[in-house]
Amino acid sequence: AGGINGVPLKVAIANDDNRPEAAKAIAKELVKNPEILGVVGHGISDTTLAAGAVYQSGELVAIAPVSSAIQLSGMGRYVFRTMPSDRYTARALSTYLLTQLKHQKAVVFYNSNSVYSQSLKNEFKDALFYLGGGQVVQEFDLSRPDFKARESVEKAIKKGAEALVLLPSNEVSDRALQV
Prior knowledge:
It contains 6 helices and 8 strands, in the order E-E-H-E-H-E-E-H-E-H-E-H-E-H. The protein has helices spanning 20-32, 45-58, 86-100, 115-132, 149-158, 173-178, and strands spanning 3-4, 7-8, 39-40, 62-64, 79-81, 105-110, 135-141, 163-167. The strands form 3 sheets. Strands 3-4-5 form a 3-stranded parallel β-sheet, with helices on one face.
């Protein structure tokens, strides 16, 4: 109800369950529907990137309010990110590590199956190095079937890590909590 100049406004809601393939399928249906004027979503960078390619080719405007992957910046003229990119988050984390904690060596725990997690990890590594000569001494993939939290932390300590940086996605948050 409501609308502009007496024209009713309709809102359609779709759920992609944070699955890129479902997001792509939903995007294809939305692009085909001439009543859809724009999209607000998707919830995570992985689904936004998957659906974004469809919106871009179908010339349907999509605004991603909570996706932060740096890859969204170059998608084209129809997909927009409203959050700062992972580059800004990574700089803030690196600055805190270097200036507040006075640490140079970190170990990173991330999810290789998540565009968001990979993006943040890569930006963090770059920022840590370029902002103060710090380094990521080791990376641990939380999504590996053979991942063991205790062993990973022990390895990190042996490598000289002064800080553990957790950059998980929802799918591996239980393993990040174990760390």
